[in-house]
Amino acid sequence: MGFLSFGHWTPSPQSQTRSAADALLQSIDLAVAAEALGVDGAYFRVHHFARQLASPFPLLAAVGARAKRIEIGTAVIDMRYENPLYMAEDAGAADLIAGGRLQLGLSRGSPEQVIDGWRYFGYRPAEGESEADMARRHTEVLLDVLRGEGFARPNPQPMFPNPPGLLRPEPHSEGLRERIWWGSGSDATAVWAAKLGMNLQSSTLKDDETGEAFHIQQARQIRAYRAAWAEAGHARTPRVSVSRSIFALMDDRDRAYFGRGKEQDRIGLIDEKTRAIFGRGYAAEPEALVEALRQDEAIAEADTLLLTVPNQLGVDYCVHAIEAVLTHVAPALGWR
User: Fold this and answer.
1) Which pairing describes strands 205-207 and 275-278: parallel, antiparallel, or unpaired?
2) Within the chain, which residues score under 70 in pLDDT?
3) pTM here?
4) Residue by residue, what is the 3-state secondary structure of 240-295?
5) What is d(CA 322, CA 319) in angstroms, rounded to the nearest whole number?
6) Side by side, which strands form the sheet with 266-269?
């Protein structure tokens, strides 16, 4: 079990996170506090051109230096914006600082704050390529580089001595290639991720491919991913995460924030062509919450659960919300 923070910040007096500095420093504090609770992972969302966490690697490295056990990850980095070789250097450095605890979630991205924001970063699809194709191409280059094999011809008169043979981006962190995840919004991209040997992240949003309840569609996506993994013949066992908004209503403060009654899945359009289904959140007294979560087929299929946190309510409240689930919900469901 881990937490997932979007790292929102706003100067509103109602927010406990009023600046970018607040969002970053509180993210580090929350990861350290979550580790003390026994949480397994601290994950952060990446959004560009928004008052949210954006450039992940300084934050991941800082958390890695402060926290000593907890996994540190992203869910997810939009690969439309990324230079894969520079990213390999940043990721390698952050992973070495963290002692090999980086779990890097990637994706083709979601609708952003600006139109075609990746163009401002210097990227555009090749001829005949969509922006999603570009994101997957960037990802495949990154995966290849993370294998650690040299490919660049060395200067015969270098400033510093080189090791023999072709060179690779440095620093290289051994094992990071197996800790790359793909944030999939469809069954087809989950299968693609399995073939390439990436772990699977599935959030509370996916393409509405059958009209069934969200958790049923997500469970089917996970099974399709695992079948494709087995067919590809990879040697290791993959990991699969799902994220959920889950709040145990323990006091009047919880009920004021989240006690709005039963939530339902929602249907919407994430662009002009894609009908999507948004999974429901869960908020109830602990006993009722346990019974509701027993019915979630996708949580049962996954091995990792990420609890989304309302970071603008502050570190102390987020710790309270996580601890309530860990203490009053997780044991009854066999999660702990």
Assistant:
1) antiparallel
2) none
3) 0.96
4) EEEEECEEECCCHHHHHHHCCCCCCCEEEECCCCCEEEECCCEEECHHHHHHHHHC
5) 5
6) 205-207, 275-278, 266-269
